[in-house]
Amino acid sequence: MMADDSGNNGGAIVVLREYNPKTDGERVEQVENSCEVGANGEVSIYTDLLGDPICRVRNSPAYLMLVAEMVKNGGDGVEETKEIVGMIRGCIKTVTCGTKFSRNKSGEPPKPLPVYTKVAYILGLRVSPSHRRMKIGLKLVCRMEEWFRDNGAEYSYIATDDENEPSVSLFTEKCGYSKFRNPSVLVHPVFAHRLPISKRINVVKLTPSEAESLYRSRFATTEFFPRDIDSILNNILNLGTFLALPKWYVWAGSDEFLSDPPENWAVMSVWNSKDVFKLEVKGVSKLMRGLAKTTRVLDRAFPFLKLPSLPKIFCPFGLHMLYGLGGSGPLYTKYSKALFGFAHNLAKKYKCGVVATEVSSEDPLKLAIPHWKKLSFTDLWCIKRLGEDYSDGSVGDWRKSHPGLSIFVDPREV
User: Where is each N-acetyltransferase domain found (predicted)?
Assistant: First the structure.
């Protein structure tokens, strides 16, 4: 348990402490339900954490959840009251932040090698609407950063909707973060009909060890690649890693593939966020609900027409997160589309509402992967260096680096 940190707010004391799953679950859920996440005050997205407030960081190597508790001492025999008014989650992992080149004495060309750093991630910052503008959010961030520093994290970053002005202002103007990356979150509804997959492409499911070999060999120098990729691939929430190959190619294992791959191929992994949390869109008119229901009815009745339909996003729905997207060859995007179709059909089997992925603003998949613009949005990643006594190494200050062609999105942090 962390030591208390208090601030006086009109006779009440704000205490920051570690989340207690035995006593805080219901009160934390009440705060979560009071906080809207949306671009405006009408249409909002609510998150149901399925009774586990730390579910979104639980699978990370190291994590912590803090709560802010308003303590009021009535005096004169009046009983003390405690109310949770805010919370924050954080996790720490080791990721790729740059590339260096090996020095070979044999005359072989230098090989790119990943440069790793310990990075922390803040997510799930919430403050009750009735207790905002009291610097509670700032206190929570500062306390979480103390834990990050104590555990050796060199950088801290957050992800927020680019249009969420209060969140952007808190981190960039008050907490010392700078805007870093602008990846795109691509969201596609799961239709009642299946998506077709090219008959010229074969989709192979890899074992976790095969997937690890492929990722470490081809993607270890990608920005934000997690050094513990094996933990992700072996997690029960990982539904598999899938490789799109030419129909003629005979899969004989990752070693043979890495030594002599076909010209065109693509890879993708699927994370089952449905078993972690569910989402729900609220504040939509009855007319919109009716139109959405009509599209589903028509799609189910006439699946051969392949009509676009909107799933039940106005009720709690789950999603599958697609991550580790990559590949090679002039037909790379075509093979990626085949994998997307496969992932869509897999999500249909699992009765998910949507499939989603996140790609770099520079990635060609941004335009190639099917998605609905009205459901998709631009993310904003802000970063902060937690200390100035670290060695710059061969990368220098990560904050000043230019974005690469792609990023590796960790599904544990969605």
Answer: 14-196
